[in-house]
Amino acid sequence: MIDLSGKVAIVTGGTRGIGAAIVEMCAGLGARVVFTGRDDSAGAGVVEKCGAESGARFLQGDVTGPGFPDLLVADVLAREGRIDILVNNAGILSRGDVVACSDAQWDATLETNVTAVFRLCRAIVPIMRRQSTATGRGGAIVNIASDWAIVGAVNAVAYGASKGAIAQLTRSMAADHARDGIRVNAICPGDTETGMLLSERGAAPRADVLAELGKSIPLGRVAKPEEIAAAVAFLASDAAGFITGVLLPVDGGHTAW
């Protein structure tokens, strides 16, 4: 049911972890993917995994740069002629409760996780709206939130606040742009087997870390990046053509327990 053939997708933060899995999944399902990140060598590695025939392309840049959204949109339109899918995946995690969180941590987290998403959506919605006028379907936006957009974040007040903001941005945009033929949804991943997650556990053996984290999840394990990517691909595809404004937990039952 999931077919992205002929669609042009933008994925931010696509060089590693969940983002890289999203790029590879969308490219494998037929989309022409342009993805961003700050690491040229990591970007080249993802392009190589996708294969030359996929047309996947890396554009180096920082999503928090005020001029970056317009640069990205102009580049993709010049080369591809349209934008069908936007996946806002780039994000950072900062630790600390409300007392420990510094102004610098708060500002950096909100700038990356919320403001950059807002700016890119603002740049892309007019493009999708014009496409809708011509074809009846403008496009699909999928924001990567977190299960901490649904339940409280422990020792991560700035991150939790940022993902809660993404949840409301998603709902508000879905309501505003449904008549424009633009669907807006969010994925709320739980603990996922990525470098970011494992790095927080120091030098502990990988298998021990994953087993310990799995104890608090009803399905008994953390997610694999490919499982998050599959949910993104579904919401971005025509198979989800009547779905908008949804926050989809992909968390092994964590938020339902």
Describe the structure.
The chain has 8 helices and 7 strands, in the order βαβαβαβαβαβαααβ. It is α/β, with parallel strands linked by helices and 257 residues long. The protein has one domain: Rossmann fold. Strand 2, helix 2 and strand 3 form a beta-alpha-beta unit. Helix 1 crosses helix 8, helix 3 packs parallel to helix 4 and helix 4 packs parallel to helix 5. The longest helix is centred in the middle third of the chain and has 33 residues.
Key terms for this structure?
45% helix, globular, 257 residues, 8 helices, alpha/beta, Rossmann fold
Whole-number mean pLDDT:
95
Largest sheet: 7 strands, parallel
Question: What structural category do the secondary elements indicate?
Answer: alpha/beta
CATH superfamily label? NAD(P)-binding Rossmann-like Domain
Rg, rounded, reads 18 Å
If classified by CATH, what would the architecture be?
3-Layer(aba) Sandwich
Fraction of helical residues = 40-55%
Structurally, the number of domains stands at 1
- What's the helix-strand series? EHEHEHEHEHEHHHE
Detail the poorly predicted runs.
none
- How many E strands? 7
